[in-house]
Design a protein that fits this description.
Number of helices: 6
Order of helices and strands: EHEHEEHEHEHEHE
CATH class: Alpha Beta
CATH topology: Rossmann fold
Radius of gyration: 16 Å
Strand order of the largest sheet: 5-2-1-6-7-8
Oligomer: single chain
CATH architecture: 3-Layer(aba) Sandwich
Distance between the termini: 7 Å
Structural class: alpha/beta
Number of strands: 8
Largest sheet: 6 strands, parallel
Number of domains: 1
Helix content: 10-25%
CATH superfamily: Isochorismatase-like
Length: about 210
């Protein structure tokens, strides 16, 4: 694919210490995304970085729910919720962007979007929060922000492919954008499910770029 700086934006999803090896919610081979993403950054005029930024006791924390990590259950008001180890607590070292990318993103990112900031609502996608207690998926404003800048297509990379990257790409489509998942710059929490994850993305209309650009 050819990158058009006037119409394309790069969305770098949650490349944070807690998702890298040694982190609280480490993604297997998560550090493998660093170099491919770094190589892409100079090719885009518009770069968005997202960052999980959870308050203590967040609804997604297994410790807050009294649940086992990596299980799926229900919140007190009946919403389905995946429960994770405590991760990306706002202001903590684990929530910081990966040092290998932080300086590059500081220079090149036009927008840093922090998500999952409300204690009662999770947020995988950069475009919309997960279902909230009122049964809505509130917008983060990212779709309107990109549209106001003439963006027609987003290239999505980062962590993790099977959750925040996929949700971001799918919600980009819902915002009327074309969406490309950049596989060299993405890794999954559950890589054994990658075939199903990618098939689902492609069936939804997301393009999967499997080779380096």
């Amino acid at each position: 694919m050819r990158i058009d700086p006037a119409l394309d934006a790069l969305v770098v999803v949650d490349v944070q210490n807690d998702f890298l090896p040694g982190g609280a919610l480490a993604v297997k081979d998560g550090d493998a995304v660093l170099e491919p993403i770094r190589a892409l950054l100079p090719r885009f005029e518009l770069v968005v970085a997202t960052q999980d930024w959870h308050p203590p006791g967040h609804v997604s924390f297994a410790s807050a729910a009294g649940a086992a990590p990596f299980t799926v259950g229900r919140t007190a008001d009946g919403r389905e919720q995946a429960f994770w180890p405590d991760h990306c607590v706002a202001g903590s070292p684990g929530a910081a962007l990966a040092p290998a990318l932080a300086a590059d993103l500081d220079r090149r990112a036009t927008l840093l979007l922090r998500k999952g900031t409300r204690p009662e609502t999770d947020s995988y996608s950069g475009f919309r929060e997960n279902l909230d207690p009122a049964g809505r998926r509130p917008s983060t404003g990212l779709g309107a922000w990109l549209g106001a800048r003439g963006v027609r297509r987003v290239l999505v990379a980062g962590l993790a492919l099977d959750f925040c990257v996929s949700w971001t790409a799918r919600d980009a489509l819902a915002e009327g954008l074309e969406a490309v998942v950049y596989l060299p710059g993405a890794r999954s929490v559950f890589p054994e499910n990658d075939a199903a994850t990618l098939a689902g993305l492609e069936a939804a209309g997301v393009t999967v770029a499997r080779d380096r650009l």
